[in-house]
Specification:
With about 500 residues, the protein is of the alpha+beta class. The chain has helices at about 35-40, 45-95, 105-110, 140-150, 190-240, 255-305, 310-345, 355-365, 385-405, 445-450, 460-470, and strands spanning about 1-5, 115-125, 125-130, 155-160, 160-170, 180-190, 250, 350-355, 370-375, 380-385, 410-415, 420-425, 475-480, 485-495. α6 (about 255-305) packs antiparallel against α7. The structure holds adenosine-5'-diphosphate.
Length: about 500
Amino acid sequence: MQIDPASPESSATAPAATGSPATGSPATGSRAPRGAQRRRLGLRARVTTMFALGALVLSGALAGIGYFAVRASIVNQQLASMRHQSLANAVLLRGELRAPTAYIPGLMTTLDSGPNTDSLIYSTNRWYPSSATTSPSELPKALEATVLGGSPAQQLINAGGTAELVVGVPIPSENGDRSRTADYFEIFNLSDLTRTLHALLAALSLAALITTVAGAVLGRWAAGRALRPLNATTKAALSIAGGHLDTRLESAQFADLAVLTSAFNQMVDQLQERIEREARFTSDVNHELRSPLTTLANSLSVLEARRDELPPKALQALDLLGAEVRRFRRLVDELLEISRFDAVGNDLSRDEVTVGALVEHTVQATGANVPIRFAPGVESRHILVDKRRFERIFANLFENAQRYAGSATLLAVENHGSSVRFLVEDEGPGIAPEERDRIFERFSRGTTGRRRGLGDGTGLGLAIVAQHVHQHGGRVWVEGRPGGGSRFVVELPAMNEVAA
Ligand code: ADP
């Protein structure tokens, strides 16, 4: 199997339970505690957050600096031009007021003022407003006093929520004639300027927001690209842990990944070689043991055929020897089965069968006298199994039930979503909760096995069951049977749903 660290497909998630290491309980697994999972963000999420935060800070700072710089420039420019306009009008007025017949309300119409501007002239103790709505009460008192005192002044005010600039310019008469002096005030409405600044602020904020989102997207993309080799490596490691020792990473496209890939592949080569060597060794040892064992068994048969001729003490020794030879034979057979799995891996020869037919056939083949109970619809479901291994699974479970609990009392077959569950029940002593995982390990004998002192137990039967079940992509565990005894549950994936 080849996995390309640089290909997008390689970033897929880990394979399902298929061939996962043997475990007796569906609850067992290397999951992090829930709290820790919630607290720790994934690398991809962290990189994305960092990119988004970076983009937010940068774009926020740039938008802020840009806004204040542009605002200062626009405001200064606008205020200068307004002041300029007021001075120009004051100069114009001064010239017009020279004429003894000057008519001030008439003069007001000649002034150059914008649409949002009001003006007032104060002369000979009278106010002349440019429009009926303009009144001297709009002028700030301090500014009015300053201007009437002979100094020009300007002030920004807030008139009912609207920003205004008030400019006052005294107009002294050219010949000192008191009756010809005047004071000119102009009130500029700044709402256009305020609107422009608000629009600028909104545009810059939107730009900062878009930049932040773009930063997050870029971060996610960059993290995805950077993590691709890691995903491929994780997938390959999981595949190897699941028994696919031929899994390798494909030679990388990038120089820095090439080192990782070749180191990883080298490590797996060595691991595979070592596992295969060990499995071969076990297998060879077992094969070598077979012939002396056969000789022993044959000699034993000869002796057993002449039991009548043997004295009682020799008979006792013969029975002991017989039990040990049978146990040894069984041990060698089971070790051979396990070592074959270690050496060859997943060599299932699967057929598609209906659950009903498979179960009937298996019970018959194992010779177990166990009642079968099918849940509605389960019999017609199809599963893909290696029939020989399926038989082996149930032969071991029935044999254990017989040995430790008298016999199996029920084989129930149930639907469980996309899987089918096979429950082997007995009414024996049951298995203590703390032993329920361990008994599926190799050479592990539970309290019952040891207490009963049954000579032919090897501690390998359930390990073989777990191995076969996992090879089929299923799970196996044991639980307490309600009312006493044990319930071994084998769960295998089915090919179709329950027919409606
Ligand atoms: P063995 O039977 O050779 O000891 P197994 O792997 O088949 O090895 O079983 C492991 C242990 O699980 C047994 O030693 C026994 O303690 C326990 N066990 C298995 N089946 C049952 C059962 N049906 N009831 C009680 N204990 C059981």
